[in-house]
Amino acid sequence: EPRSAWCCLAWTLVVVTMNSLVFFMNLLLMFVIFTVVLLPTIVVVYFGFQCHSRVLHSAARYCKSILDDNSSSALIILGFVIMSPLIVVAMAIYCSLARRLRLLMCFQPYSRAVYKGVKWRWYEEGGLCSCAKGWNTQVKAWV
User: In 1-143, which residue ranges form alpha helices assigned H by DSSP?
Assistant: First the structure.
């Protein structure tokens, strides 16, 4: 049975707020995973650019004694070369974690706000984001 206009508007705000919260939690999780996995690339490229004479040319002791322009260029190239496989690893970690925690199942449909009697998705499936219900062995996901 459809809700009244004001009730529908209030429930729409609740559903949009919950979906936005779930979206930002997913975004935060993805940011943390990518930051941790790509940290070696970030460090290598940073030191390469910091010690190269045509870019920043730092006066740090390790730039003068250890890293010259050739080694700084090698660090920059190495950092960008290892970035691609690390992005794939970070995405695989995020996808497997999102699948295991069923994070994408936490999004609520808009019909929850429009019609009365529509149960919350996690209520139907056995707990918050389906964590309490057993695994469905028929679902296949390729990562």
Answer: 5-37, 39-51, 61-65, 69-101, 111-114, 121-124
Q: How far apart are CA 138 and CA 103, in angstroms?
A: 18
Contact 112, 118 (CB under 8 A): yes
Q: Are 4 and 12 in contact (CB under 8 A)?
A: no
pTM for this structure?
A: 0.69
Q: How far is CA 43 from the centre of its chain?
A: 20
Residue 94 to residue 38: CA distance in whole angstroms: 13
- In DSSP terms, 115 is beta-bridged to 2
Per-residue model confidence as pLDDT tens digits over 65-98: 888 888 889 999 999 999 999 999 999 999 999 8
Dump the DSSP string for 19-36: HHHHHHHHHHHHHHHHHH
Name residue 36's amino acid: V
